[in-house]
Amino acid sequence: xxxxxxxxxxxxxxxxxxxxxAFRTAAVGIDTPDGSVSIGVDLDGRRHLxxxxxxxxxxxxxxxxxxxxxxxxxxxxxxxxxDFAVLELVDPRLTELFTALCxxxxxxxxxxxxxAVVALARVLADWRALLAGDREVIGPSALxxxxxxxxxxxxxxxxxxxxxTAWTGPTGSAQDFHRGPHAVEVKSTVAPDGRVVHIxxxxxxxxxxxxxxxxxxxxxxxxxxxxxxxxxxxxxxxCLDPDLVQGLLRRVGYLAGDREVxxxxxxxxxxSRTHEIGPGFPRIVPSTLSGDAVLxxxxxxxxxxxxxxxxxxxxxxxxxxxxxxxxTA
Length: 329
Known about the structure:
- The protein is an alpha+beta fold.
- It has helices spanning 4-15, 95-111, 116-126, 128-132, 140-159, 228-238, 242-251, 259-262, 321-326; strands at residues 23-32, 35-42, 47-53, 68-76, 81-89, 177-179, 182-189, 196-200, 213-227, 266-277, 302-306.
- It has nine helices and eleven strands.
């Protein structure tokens, strides 16, 4: 099974090659009776997935959306002339989602290489919303972030069905969860190594005394586990106010009508760490800025924090986000 990181590396490899034809390509490692599946980068830097098809094969009806195009193309190299079904990313804002689409195409073709066209057609039928470009859907990175927040929310409502009100991130608050004076910020990554988090704003790692603030970090894998729609169902089944949760989901861009898109990406927590933010923890907060710099024309502050490089004073804590928010820590 291939994953998005592998495809990203292949696109980077193809892009680094000399432009001697319409496509700079790299083989994915999946062979069909009509040739090998490849990824490609064209002369304008746009990404493509090339699925070989027989000369007489009938493709799904061409897709000409604002996000993704599907076209039949005949390409030549030094050895042969072949027909391909070519998926092209049109909207660069949907790069991550296009990668997820290509991963699914490759996986389905790999399962039935002799029926590559059928596999392609089925994926395209499932991804109609993306291909038409009718609305934006949540990309894989943001979906991983939502998954992380929902795991905390599920744990909260399992112990207190009325605790869904603690989920404040969708309302634009500095942290993802607040209850009383306490707060929790959740960060998720699908990267296979490293513990780097992106901090947005000088208030994300700041909380007024006597409140306590936890940074809850999760590493996720994407080839097994549960999908966000299933996690949403579990939260809705357990909470006292499903309408509140559904409203918050809409605010982050999650719509039930896109369930079939999100259901194909699964997550599993493979590592978690919780840090209590306090003295000795590396961060940028208003109190660390000189003079009135926070007010004098300074734009939004974003920075990267490497948890592995943090000093010993920033070590992990045994206090769980749920215990802190429920007042049992």
